[in-house]
Each structure stands twice: as C-alpha cells, then as structure tokens.
C-alpha cells in the first residue's frame, strides 16, 4: 500500500476499476436483464409523471405537483448516474472509469441525492400547509414561492455535492485503484486514499448526518402535525383521502432515508451489506416513486385519463 511519501505524479492513479455488485457468474445475464428493465421502467415512469404534470393545467398550477414533477426529473438523472454502470458490470466490457469520471459521478450523485433530500422536506412542508393550514395555503405556498424553494434546494444540493467531491479527491490516490462498490461513492473511494482519511470521514459523517437528520426531523415534525390534524377530520372518507396522500410520501421517504442512514452514519464501515442496501435508494426508490404517486394519487390518475382520452377528455373539460 502506498503512503504519503510515495505519491509523485507518475504513481497517481488515472482511473478506477468499479468491481460492481458481487454476483454468481451464472446469473450475469439474468441480472443484466433485471437492471436493464428497471432502468427503462424508471425512465419511462418518471417521464410519464413529468409530462403529465407539465401537460395538465390543473396539475402544473399547484405546488404539490410542481414538486412531484421536479422529483421525477431528479429520479431520471439519479438513475442515469448509477444504473448504467451497474448494467455495465454484467457485461464483458471494461469496468474502468477515468479519474475525472469518478469525480463527476461522486459529485452528481451527492448533488442529486441531497437535492432530493431537500425536496422531500419541501413536499412534507407543502402537505403540512395544505392539511393543517388549508385556508391560508394559497397565500403561504404559491407558485412563485414554490419555484424559489425548489431553486434553493438545487443550489444547496450543488454546494453539498461540491464540498463532498472536493474533500474526497483532494487526497492522493496512488494505488490500488479497485473500488469495491458499484459506483464512485465516498466510503468506497476513501479506502483507496494514500493518506489519513480521519478528517474526511468526520466531515462526511457530520455533513451528511446534519443534512439527513435535519431533513428527516423536519419531515417527522410535519407529519406529526398532519396526523394530529387528520384525526380531527370528522368524516371517515376525509381521513382516508388525507392518509392516502401522505402515506405515499412517507413510504418513499422511508425507503430513501433508512438505507442512507445505514451507509453514511457508520464511518469506516466495510460491511458487505452496504452495496445491497445502497441499491434501495439508488435503484429501487427512483423506480417506486412514479408507481407510488400514480397508483395512490387519484388526481394524477385522473390527469392521465384526461391526457390519454384525447379529444373526448378535452370536450368533457369544456
């Protein structure tokens, strides 16, 4: 193993080898097909949500669906950053990724992931205002404010991704260059650094821990107030509709946050479970989002019917 005294430019790595997900050789073709189908369905499902929100005037004028459209856009990019590399692992192609490509992938993942984290918080806040402050909701959460909050989430996500990428790749990497993971992520890359990574691990723990914990606590606080308000609704149908809307959001948040906490809040972990757990929020969550929000949201289903109904739906709306 190299050390800090042996990190001249001619010994620095120029690319990394992504070892991918461990798998039996006889299942390579099956796993290739599974992840390929997941990727296609993820792209099509989120694109459908995005186009539905954009095309239906009743949806794209409401903050809740603006946020849903942004979430679909993020999921399409997040899936594209990670899943093609997983698919490549099940082919005879080279598993090498250029040093710059590794930097870009780590930045893009943390940029998109943290932006999504902030977006989930905004979606919880939007539901809190809609259910707990219904009379003041149009004033407290209008289209202009929603756009400003979304822009703020993108900027904050970009800053977070830049910090993590800069801190990770300021360290020298002089070999070995095999990343025991399916994409360039902080814990796996730091194990290859030819320098002390204690500060990096601490900053990663605090930074990601603070972001994730703060967002998660705000979401829980929002939903605690939402549940309290829902229980005051007198009609059973009203309670059911309110719980259905919030239940879809909570399902996605749980699938997203629990694996993140498992991966990033255990500094220095080398558990073989890390890769399997990471698949949930990098592969499964982007696939589930369009399914959950379309199957459990009556307004999205109605909008899809209006759009696919063509002229009949248009004449009905008139």
From TrEMBL:
Residues 45-293 form the G-protein coupled receptors family 1 profile domain. It is a multi-pass membrane protein. It is found in: Cell membrane. Its main location: membrane. Keywords: Cell membrane, G-protein coupled receptor, Membrane, Olfaction, Receptor, Sensory transduction, Transducer, Transmembrane, Transmembrane helix. The chain crosses the membrane at residues 29-53, 65-87, 107-125, 145-163, 208-231, 243-265, 277-295. This is G-protein coupled receptors family 1 profile domain-containing protein. It comes from Myotis lucifugus (Little brown bat).
């Amino acid at each position: 193993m190299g050390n800090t005294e042996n990190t001249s430019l001619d010994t620095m790595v120029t690319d990394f080898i992504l070892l991918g997900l461990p798998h039996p050789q006889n299942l390579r073709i099956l796993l290739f097909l599974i992840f390929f189908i997941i990727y296609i369905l993820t792209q099509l499902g989120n694109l459908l949500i995005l186009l539905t929100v954009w095309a239906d005037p009743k949806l794209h004028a409401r903050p809740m669906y603006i946020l849903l459209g942004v979430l679909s856009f993020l999921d399409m990019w997040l899936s594209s950053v990670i899943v093609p590399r997983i698919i490549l692992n099940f082919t005879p192609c080279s598993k090498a990724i250029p040093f710059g490509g590794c930097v870009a992938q780590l930045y893009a993942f943390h940029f998109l992931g943290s932006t999504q984290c902030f977006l989930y918080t905004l979606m919880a806040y939007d539901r809190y205002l809609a259910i707990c402050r219904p009379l003041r909701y149009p004033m407290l959460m209008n289209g202009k404010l929603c756009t400003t909050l979304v822009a703020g989430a993108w900027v904050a996500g970009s800053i977070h991704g830049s910090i993590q990428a800069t801190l990770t790749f300021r360290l020298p990497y002089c070999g070995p260059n095999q990343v025991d993971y399916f994409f360039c992520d902080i814990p796996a890359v730091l194990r290859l650094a030819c320098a002390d990574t204690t500060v990096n691990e601490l900053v990663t723990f605090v930074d990601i821990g603070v972001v994730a914990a703060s967002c998660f606590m705000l979401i829980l606080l929002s939903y605690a107030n939402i549940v309290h308000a829902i229980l005051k609704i007198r009609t059973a149908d009203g309670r059911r509709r309110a719980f259905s809307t919030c239940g879809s959001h909570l399902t996605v948040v749980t699938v997203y946050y629990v694996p993140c906490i498992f991966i990033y809040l255990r500094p220095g972990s080398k558990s073989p479970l890390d890769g399997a757990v990471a698949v949930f929020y990098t592969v499964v969550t982007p696939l589930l989002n369009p399914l959950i929000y379309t199957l459990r949201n009556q307004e999205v289903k109605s909008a899809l019917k209006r759009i696919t109904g063509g002229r009949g739906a248009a004449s009905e709306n008139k």
